[in-house]
What we know:
- By secondary structure, this protein is mostly helical.
- The protein has a single domain (about 5-65), classed as Helix Hairpins (Orthogonal Bundle), CATH 1.10.287.
- It is built from three helices and no strands.
Amino acid sequence: xxxxxxxxxxxxKKYHIFIYTGNRLADLDxxxxxxxxxxxxxxxPEQEYYTAVLIxxxxxxxxxxx
Length: 66
């Protein structure tokens, strides 16, 4: 079960998706887009998609509030 960003990155890694641009907000955007692609292709179950997106959005909010 996913609980944090590390878990989201491990999920993407499972599908051979590695994201690092040097800009954390851009990384989060790219991760969300990749997750949407996986869900749209019916590779990623919807519940996993929604959980991962919520974690990403929580991380984005915490970065923007600093």
